[in-house]
Design a protein that fits this description.
It is built from one helix and ten strands. It is mainly beta. It has one domain.
Length: 121
């Protein structure tokens, strides 16, 4: 496996600090990526689809407009939400925390941290 993070600065553009854990048992904290003052977001609107047994059903429609995402910088990878990663297909400098089954959860099933990132190939 190639070490993609060697000599790279990680800039967290999500609204949360991100704890990265090893996959060892028990997991060990490898690093904490502090949130910054900037948050990358995808603008969206809602479209009403109908009603199911009296409860309204809406779809989120992405506008494609991204805010809070800096231009690419040498030696920097930006940590963004999965929604931003999916919306910005032309950038190879974006990572998203994998909050699926591989993440670390507490006894109340809240996410404590991640064990891996997702990135475009």
């Amino acid at each position: 496996m190639t070490d993609l993070l060697r000599n790279v600065e990680l800039v967290n553009l999500t609204p949360h600090d991100i704890d990265v854990f090893s996959i060892n048992v028990p997991p060990q904290l490898l690093m904490r990526i502090a949130k910054t003052d900037s948050i990358a977001r995808v603008e969206m609107t809602e479209k009403e689809l109908g009603v199911i047994q009296g409860c309204p059903v809406f779809a989120k429609v992405l506008s494609g407009t991204i805010s809070g995402l800096p231009d690419p910088q040498d030696g920097v990878l930006f940590v963004v939400s999965t929604m931003v990663l999916d919306a910005v297909k032309e950038r190879s400098d974006l990572l998203s925390p994998d909050t699926g089954p591989s993440c670390i959860r507490d006894s109340s099933n809240r996410i404590k941290g991640i064990t891996r990132f997702m990135m475009r190939e």
